[in-house]
């Protein structure tokens, strides 16, 4: 519709088609021009269709709300990492802040997924059954700190295994990024991680433990 | 945006409204991280892992986690491209299906009772599961609800599962091909999953023996079970899983077919009578497995076959059936068509009917507008004057309505020139309905509506967050006090921690949230009808 109330330009409302054919007779009052955006909540002209009610409606409604709640509790609901506080607190050690090492809470069938999606996890002996998150030794590849590491890991004997596996673990630790103190290094961390798995030649695969914990390596 | 030449970027064909709705759904069900990755893939098309991480500014680990969840739930698929690059692609329309989960579950309940209901629910909540896993979970859940001492037998759950598979409501997922030969060389970066058509509903021979177990009752139910108590991996891993690697998922198409059948039957019942609708229902049931979900017609059925398949209680003579069939075939709505005479007359059911659209008109513009719309739809093309005459609506009102519908694109204007120079005074201007575009437009509005409903509901909940948390805490305290046998007076005291105006506020909140949820469900029904219609029509073109 080319007609505009306002008559800008030469002549008033010159149209390319015959108005009468469309039904606007000469002299008919046209609706007023729109000068502002339509109101946010215009009054409802017609009554809306009634909402589903009755037994079926109620049941489906309850079901919907239940599902919503249920899905939030499932391990598929990934919560963003809790922002780390400035200072380490003693209570942190006793709080289960989330899945270990950014790994997944549930157990996908890795045979069905691309290999690149596996997240390497430093394997703990008793894994998730323990509530206590052990203090993870800082990442290092230097010998001096390795010794300190050895001391630290020996400290927490009850959560670790035999010294044999200690060595294997430290080997792994060298290659992995375990984060806990400086959490702002997380970004930096992940890049290292990425490079690690990119160049992963499979040497470590299966060599970590003889236990039957097949979900250990991610 | 990263200008990575190696990643094949397909332009997204989703509208903003659909993307917004997907975003809300993903966020509600899986959290922000999954939402970020999912929406990114929907917008940009197929991408590899590194590019996703870079473009979204998310850590690689987070992206991996999100992708695992999305793939598990059939919302994202992957493909190995050349040079071993794996690319991930989102299935936007599948995300939108999450709106319909309650309806799928409820439908199963009506067909296969509580056991069936829980089977489908577990499959939807977990994306995919092995049969043994489903049976165990469902048996445990059902046992929880039974009286003390009673348990649910695995065999019963298995039977229901088999029935669901037989009627195609659940189907097998494509699986990792078994390679007998030891393939030399490195394993591929990602498996290529395959499924044989004939295996899709094949239930593995399992002898699942056992009964459901009750959860160890913990009094602090409000706090939920602390992670340590859940023996996640230890018990399951000890026994070998008999159907390892065979995963099942809900077959959404089959549910859609069921919904469609229901809609047809009720439309026929509304228009004609109970008997006609029963006949149509019988015809549909006979065609259940043989008709693909998006076929515009069923396979032809002979009236003899129909007669034999009528439900046992229905005693109508063969001639009566034939009369009904003729009536149905003659109906201008064309639900049923005659397609031959063998076997006493062959009949098909036309899935495609624009009846669906007509129902929705009154909601938007009022019943008079709907009348006009129906008229134009039926007559295909009408002039202004004709509309007024046929609809018997005064000219002014008719004009008003026509223009309203025109501005909303339900109706369009077509020019038919009488003379080669297309002079306006010598041209016909006809109103016409382009059903397909009207349907699309309506669908778009529906997506927007639901997005608004969800946002409003989230807003309402957020506004009252503090109060909701307080009320939950109080409930938890009361529950634990009741368990330890507190007195009535003490319980009263705790309850009074929530003041009367606060109670009022909670009541109002609950009412509003219920209304918003119910509206979502209702709009999704419309979405289903429109999508089905569009899909069918496109197949025909």
Structure description:
The complex is a heterodimer of chains A (218) and B (541). Chain A has helices spanning 19-22, 54-73, 143-155, 163-175, 186-198. Chain A has 218 residues and is an all-alpha fold. Chain A has a domain at 55-79 and 92-117. In chain A, 29% of the residues lie in helices and 0% in strands. In chain B, the strands form 4 sheets. A 3-stranded antiparallel beta sheet of chain B has the order 1-3-2. Residues 1-11, 217-238 and 341-348 of chain B have low confidence and may be disordered. Chain B is built from 21 helices and 12 strands. In chain B, a hairpin with a 5-residue loop joins strand 8 and strand 9 (346-349). In chain B, helix 1 (16-30) packs parallel to helix 18 (435-463) and helix 6 packs across helix 7 (131-145). By secondary structure, chain B is mainly alpha-helical. The chains are: A mainly alpha (218), B mainly alpha (541). Chains A and B meet through helix 2 and helix 5 of A and helix 1, helix 2, helix 3, helix 4 and helix 6 of B. Chain A: Residues 139-160 have a biased composition (Basic and acidic residues). Chain A: This is DNA-directed RNA polymerase III subunit. Chain A: Belongs to the eukaryotic RPC7 RNA polymerase subunit family.
The overall pLDDT average of chain A reads 60
Low-pLDDT regions of chain A: 1-9, 123-141, 158-192, 196-200, 206-211
Question: What portion of residues of chain B is helical?
Answer: 55-70%
Structural category of chain B? mainly alpha
Unreliable stretches of chain B (pLDDT < 50, length at least 5) are 1-11, 217-238, 341-348
Kindly report how far apart the N and C termini of chain A lie.
Answer: 64 Å
Side by side, the strands of the main sheet of chain B go 1-3-2
Task: Kindly report the greatest chain-chain contact and the residue count on each side.
Answer: A-B, 65 and 83 residues
Compute the number of helices of chain B: 21
Helix and strand string of chain A, N-terminal first?
A: HHHHH
């Amino acid at each position: 519709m080319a007609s505009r109330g306002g008559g800008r330009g030469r002549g008033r409302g010159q149209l390319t088609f015959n108005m009468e054919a469309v039904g606007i007779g000469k002299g008919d009052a046209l609706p007023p021009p729109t000068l502002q955006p339509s109101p946010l909540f215009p009054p409802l002209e017609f009554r809306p269709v009634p909402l589903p009610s009755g037994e079926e409606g109620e049941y489906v409604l309850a079901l919907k709300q239940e599902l919503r709640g249920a899905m939030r509790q499932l391990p598929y609901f990934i919560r963003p990492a809790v922002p780390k506080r400035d200072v380490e607190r003693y209570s942190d050690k006793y709080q289960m802040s989330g899945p270990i090492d950014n790994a997944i809470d549930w157990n996908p069938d890795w045979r069905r997924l691309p290999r690149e999606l596996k997240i390497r996890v430093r394997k703990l002996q008793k894994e998730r059954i323990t509530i206590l998150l052990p203090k993870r030794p800082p990442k290092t590849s230097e010998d001096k700190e390795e010794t300190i590491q050895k001391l630290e890991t020996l400290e927490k004997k009850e959560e670790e295994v035999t010294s044999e596996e200690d060595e294997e673990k430290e080997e792994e630790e060298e290659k992995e990024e375990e984060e806990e103190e400086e959490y702002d290094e997380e970004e930096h961390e992940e890049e290292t991680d990425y490079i690690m798995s990119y160049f992963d030649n499979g040497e470590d695969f299966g060599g970590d433990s003889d236990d039957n914990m097949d979900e250990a390596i991610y | 945006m990263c200008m990575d030449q190696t990643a094949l970027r397909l332009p997204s064909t989703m509208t903003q409204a659909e993307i917004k709705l997907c975003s809300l759904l993903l966020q509600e069900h899986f959290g922000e991280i999954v939402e970020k990755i999912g929406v990114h893939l929907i917008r940009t098309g197929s991408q590899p892992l590194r590019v996703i991480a870079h473009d979204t500014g998310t850590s690689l680990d987070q992206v991996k986690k999100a992708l695992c969840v999305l793939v598990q739930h059939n919302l994202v698929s992957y493909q190995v491209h050349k040079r071993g690059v794996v690319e991930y692609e989102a299935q936007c329309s599948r995300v939108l299906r999450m709106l319909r989960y309650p309806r799928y579950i409820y439908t199963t309940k009506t067909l296969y009772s509580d056991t069936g209901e829980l089977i489908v629910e577990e499959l939807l909540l977990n994306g995919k599961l092995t049969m043994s896993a489903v049976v165990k979970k469902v048996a445990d859940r059902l046992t929880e609800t039974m009286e003390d001492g009673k348990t649910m037998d695995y065999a019963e759950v298995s039977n229901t599962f088999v029935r669901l598979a037989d009627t195609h409501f659940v189907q097998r997922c494509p699986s990792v091909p078994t390679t007998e030969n030891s393939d030399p060389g490195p394993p591929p970066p990602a498996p290529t999953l395959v499924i044989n058509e004939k295996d899709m509903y094949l239930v593995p021979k399992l002898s699942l023996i056992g009964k459901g177990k009750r959860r160890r009752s913990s009094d602090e139910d409000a706090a939920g079970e602390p992670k340590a108590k859940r023996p996640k991996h230890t018990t399951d891993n000890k026994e070998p899983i008999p159907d390892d690697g065979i995963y099942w998922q809900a077959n959404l198409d089959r549910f859609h077919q069921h919904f469609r059948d229901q809609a047809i039957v009720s439309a026929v019942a509304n228009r004609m009578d109970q008997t006609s609708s029963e006949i149509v229902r019988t015809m549909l049931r006979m065609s259940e497995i043989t008709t693909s979900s998006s076929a515009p017609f069923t396979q032809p059925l002979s009236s003899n076959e129909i007669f034999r398949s009528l439900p046992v209680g229905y005693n109508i003579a063969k001639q009566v059936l034939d009369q009904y069939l003729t009536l149905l075939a003659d109906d201008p709505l064309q639900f049923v068509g005659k397609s031959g005479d063998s076997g006493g007359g062959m009949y098909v059911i036309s899935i495609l009917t624009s009846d669906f659209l007509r129902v929705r008109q009154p909601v938007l513009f009022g019943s008079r507008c709907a009348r006009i719309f129906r008229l134009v739809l039926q007559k295909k093309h009408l002039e202004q004057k004709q509309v007024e005459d046929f609809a018997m609506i005064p000219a002014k009102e008719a004009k008003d309505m026509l223009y309203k519908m025109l501005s909303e694109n339900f109706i369009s204007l077509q020019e038919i020139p009488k003379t080669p120079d297309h002079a306006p005074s010598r041209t016909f201007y006809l109103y016409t309905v382009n059903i397909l575009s009207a349907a699309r437009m309506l669908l778009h509005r529906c997506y927007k509506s639901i997005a608004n409903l969800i946002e409003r509901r989230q807003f309402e909940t957020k506004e009252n967050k503090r109060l909701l948390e307080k009320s939950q805490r109080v409930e938890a305290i009361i529950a634990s006090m009741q368990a330890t046998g507190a007195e009535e007076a003490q319980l009263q005291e705790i309850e009074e921690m929530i003041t009367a105006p606060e109670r009022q506020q909670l009541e109002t909140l609950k009412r509003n949230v219920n209304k918003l949820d119910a509206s979502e469900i209702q709009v999704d029904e419309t979405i289903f009808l429109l999508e089905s219609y569009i899909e069918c029509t496109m197949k025909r073109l």
